[in-house]
Amino acid sequence: MYLTPQHILLAGATGLTGEHLLDRLLAEPTVQRVLAPTRRPLAEHAHLENPVGPLLPLLADLQGPVDIAFSCLGTTIKQAGSQEAFRQVDHDLIVAYAQRALELGARHFLLISAIDADPQSSVFYNRVKGETEEALRAQGWPQLTIARPSLLLGDRVEARLAERIAGPLSKLIPGKYHGIEALQLARALWRLALEEQDGVRVVESDELRRLGK
C-alpha cells in the first residue's frame, strides 16, 4: 500500500543528503508542509516552515501535525571533536528528535544510519549507529525504516579528505559496499516513505541504490 504524506518533519536539511531530500519534498504536489529546523536559514518556500537554531532546544517548540519524519542528521568524530560529542549528535540528538516526532503524531520514522551498524561492534562509529537503531526500535514506532548507506558520494560544502580518496575506490566495490550518491539516497528515502507496512524495515545500500535510480 502506498501513502500520500502531507506533513513532513525533516532534520538535517542542510546536509549532503538532506538538501536533496528537501528539494524533492518541496517539489511534491501532495506535500503541504515541510517542517525543517536548521542552524542556518533555508531559502523561503510557500510550503516550508524553517525554525532556526540548535535542534535540541527547538524540539519542544515544534508543532504538528506530522505524518512522517526523516532524520538526515549525522557528523563525524573529527567534526564533533571527540567520541562523546559524536555520540551526542548521532545517538542522543537523533533519539530525542525521534521521540518528539512521535509526540507530534508521526507514524513513520526514516533514519539514515550506516552500513555495518551494530550495537555489539568493536568499532565505535558502528556501535553508536547500532545503539541508535536499537533505541529507535524501543520507542515503538508503528513503522520504522532504517537506511544503511555505504560511503556517501557528492559535493559537500566542507570537503572530507578521506571521502575524496575513498569515493572513487568505493565505486569499484560490488554489492552493498559500493558507494552511493546522496541524490540516489534521497530518492530512495522518498520512495520508502510512500510505502506503508508495519514494523521495522532495514534497507541496505545496494537496495537503496536500486530504489534511488
Most strands sheet: 7 strands, parallel
Given as residue ranges, the uncertain stretches (5+ residues, pLDDT < 50) are 159-163
Helix content: 25-40%
Q: Give the CATH architecture.
A: 3-Layer(aba) Sandwich
Shape: globular
Oligomer classification: single chain
Strands, total number = 9
Treating each run of at least 4 consecutive H or I residues as one helix, how many helices? 8
Radius of gyration: 16 Å
Provide the CATH superfamily: NAD(P)-binding Rossmann-like Domain
Classify the secondary structure makeup into a structural class: alpha/beta
CATH topology: Rossmann fold
Order of helices and strands: EHEEHEHHEHEEHEHEH
- CATH top level is Alpha Beta
**N-to-C CA distance:** 21 Å
Taken as a percent bin, the fraction of beta residues is 15-25%
Largest sheet strand order:
3-2-1-4-5-6-9
Question: On the 0-100 scale, what is the average pLDDT?
Answer: 91
- Return the domain count: 1
Protein name: Nucleoside-diphosphate sugar epimerase
InterPro entries: NAD(P)-bd_dom_sf
Organism: Pseudomonas rhizosphaerae
SSE map:
Elements: E1 7-11, H1 16-27, E2 33-35, E3 48-49, H2 55-58, E4 68-71, H3 77-80, H4 83-103, E5 108-112, H5 124-138, E6 143-148, E7 152-153, H6 161-170, E8 180-181, H7 182-193, E9 199-204, H8 205-211
Parallel strand pairs: 1-2, 1-4, 2-3, 4-5, 5-6, 6-9, 7-8
Protein name: Nucleoside-diphosphate sugar epimerase
InterPro entries: NAD(P)-bd_dom_sf
Account of the 3D structure:
The strands form two sheets. A seven-stranded parallel sheet has the order 3-2-1-4-5-6-9, with helices on both faces. Strands 7-8 form a two-stranded parallel sheet. Helix 1 (16-27) packs across helix 7 (182-193), helix 4 (83-103) runs parallel beside helix 5 (124-138) and helix 7 packs across helix 8 (205-211). The protein has 213 residues and is of the alpha/beta class. It is built from eight helices and nine strands. The model is unreliable at 159-163 (pLDDT under 50). The protein starts with 6 loop residues before the first strand and ends with a helix. This is Nucleoside-diphosphate sugar epimerase. InterPro entries: NAD(P)-bd_dom_sf.
